[in-house]
What we know:
Layout: H1 2-14, H2 22-37, H3 39-42, H4 45-50, H5 54-93, H6 99-167, H7 170-191, E1 214-216, H8 217-221, E2 229-232, E3 239-241, H9 242-262, E4 269-275, E5 279-286, H10 295-301, H11 306-317, E6 321-326, E7 332-339
Parallel strand pairs: 2-4
Antiparallel strand pairs: 1-3, 4-5, 5-7, 6-7
Amino acid sequence: MVMAVWTVATAYGYSRPEQRTWRLVVADLAVSLGCLFATALAASPFYLTQATPLSSYWFAGAVLATGAVWGARGGALVALLYGLADITLRESMGAAITSATVRGVVLLLLVGMAVGYMANVAERAERRFAQAVFLEARLHEREQLARSIHDSVLQVLALVRRRGEEIGGAAAELGRMAGEQEVRLRSLVTDGLPDLDTGPAVTPPSPSGEEHMSIDLRELVRRDESTHVSVSAPATPVLLDVHTARETAAAVHTALDNIVRHCPKDTGAWILIEDEDEAVIVTVRDDGPGIPEGRLARARREGRLGIAQSVVGRIQDLGGTVEIITAPEEGTEIEMRVPRPTS
């Protein structure tokens, strides 16, 4: 009677995600172990050597439930706990330990680990499906917004830029500013709109309620895109945690600011973002006059630490490396390698 009632109760509890907690698992194990040891009151030692008691078969439900909730390790641990309890029961009743006892433990061990593994696979698949639905909805919204902006704002900015270049003078400066805003706006509607405060978080909350906040590095870097700065990035989001992404984008901004300060007015700059499995590589290159030999060391001695602290220091604090390649009249290339934080 107890086993029947508890089977109905646990079936209801495990079917509801909010009740699928460690408390229910512990209670299920306690009841299952209690019913297993209650076999001593209803069976003789000779019976245990001839057939497996019903409570042993029923205990398999606790192993499967634990594997589904706690994963493969949880299922394996409970299977071993069953083996220890079964041996203790037989020793206390004076019943012999047969080969069937060992086979039952091994079978529960394999089943518990298999169910735990498949539960983890199903959970990861559900998370990826939720992320795919989220990204698809965002892409559809972005396409609608892009069509609306293209038909109004972008055309006006393009017209202002062209007319300013034709008129010249003060109007040329206005046209240049309109051109820069056109480039930035096109990049936004092409690759997604960032949030107002924290930037675009493209990883949705997981089904368990935990939020893994990530930011698309492309969005932060493209804020510096202009008529003189070109950004090349992968077609898919380059996800980094909030702190790493912001510090990397700040280092890129400092490198671009250094180009504005020390290079001719029309110097062009190119930013390349590469997304690898273990690291993200951001390269900033310009076609300026290059950095004279010893200039960086002299600037550090004079207390001007733009490259040393704002670029190299930031990336090194993230556990990354910076390589600076420069030559007279051949421009400068700054390669920043930022490792992905490990769990």
